[in-house]
Write a sequence for this structure.
């Protein structure tokens, strides 16, 4: 199944094609996607994940055609 991914800041995006898509196995979870696209370990507890515009937990099961966005809380000044 194809998933569209917007990796956001500080996420390497490993495994994404030039269109920002990745092929995943059926019943893959957000947690599995996080590992594949190489979200840094220090960032994982802080990561906010949106699937099709709704915030989800990391055990959320993905479906063909889903759009996933990773939001990272960053501070600066």
């Amino acid at each position: 199944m194809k998933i569209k991914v917007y990796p956001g800041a500080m996420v390497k995006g490993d495994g994404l094609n030039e269109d920002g898509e990745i092929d995943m196995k059926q019943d893959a979870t957000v947690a599995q996607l996080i590992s594949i696209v190489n979200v840094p370990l220090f960032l994982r507890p802080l990561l906010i994940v949106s699937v099709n515009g709704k915030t989800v937990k990391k055990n959320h099961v993905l479906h063909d055609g889903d759009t996933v966005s990773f939001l990272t809380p960053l501070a600066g000044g």
About this structure: The chain has one domain: 2-71. Residues 2-71 form a domain with the Ubiquitin-like (UB roll) fold (CATH 3.10.20.30). The CA atoms of residues 13 and 38 lie 6 Å apart.
